[in-house]
């Protein structure tokens, strides 16, 4: 038996569509200077990001000061540099007002 040469065009592989992975981060109630150790631990565990989109959930935030805002600004900036989009869910009114007073609302992401 002899093999015939194939005249069919070689198939090209289709690029697989990239699945968006989402990470939800529930922020703690105390984001003041004296409670930042817990906040830092939570955020540090999520860095560097292994996901495409990060959702920060601020529903639990009861108290926040400038140190807490700065921690969030640094985290958001760092994950964005790694190509991760940041969105907020249940944005804390107190966090928003303080970030607004400090002129840092845009640095906190969407």
Notes on the structure:
The chain is of the alpha/beta class and 110 residues long. The protein has one domain (22-108): 2-Layer Sandwich (Transcription Regulator spoIIAA), CATH 3.30.750. Helices cover 31% and strands 17% of the residues. It has 3 helices and 5 strands, in the order E-E-H-E-E-H-E-H. The protein has helices at residues 36-44, 66-81, 93-101; strands at residues 22-26, 30-31, 53-57, 63-64, 85-89. The strands form 2 sheets. A 3-stranded parallel β-sheet has the order 1-3-5. The chain has a two-stranded parallel sheet with strand order 2-4. Helix 1 (36-44) runs parallel beside helix 2 (66-81). The termini are far apart. Residues 1-19 have low confidence and may be disordered.
Unreliable stretches (pLDDT < 50, length at least 5) are 1-19
Judging by the overall fold, what is the CATH architecture? 2-Layer Sandwich
How much helix, percentage-wise, in residues?
25-40%
Major β-sheet, in short? 3 strands, parallel
What number of domains? 1
* SSE order, one letter for each helix or strand: EEHEEHEH
- The CATH first-level class comes to Alpha Beta
CATH fold descriptor = Transcription Regulator spoIIAA
- Radius of gyration (CA) equals 22 Å
In terms of DSSP E residues, the strand content is 15-25%
Can you list the strand order of the major beta sheet? 1-3-5
Q: How far from one another are the termini?
A: 67 Å
CATH superfamily: STAS domain
The global form is globular
Structural class: alpha/beta
Residue-averaged pLDDT, rounded?
82
Q: Tell me the number of strands.
A: 5
Number of DSSP helices?
A: 3
């Amino acid at each position: 038996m002899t093999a015939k040469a194939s005249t069919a065009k070689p198939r090209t592989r289709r690029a697989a569509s990239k699945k968006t992975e989402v990470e939800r981060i529930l922020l703690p109630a105390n984001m003041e200077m004296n409670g930042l150790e817990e906040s830092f631990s939570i955020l540090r565990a999520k860095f560097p990001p292994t996901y495409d989109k990060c959702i920060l959930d601020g529903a639990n935030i009861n108290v926040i000061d400038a140190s807490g805002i700065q921690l969030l600004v640094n985290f958001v900036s760092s994950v964005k540099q790694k190509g991760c989009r940041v969105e907020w869910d249940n944005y804390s009114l107190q966090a928003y007002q303080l970030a607004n007073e400090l002129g840092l609302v845009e640095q906190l992401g969407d």
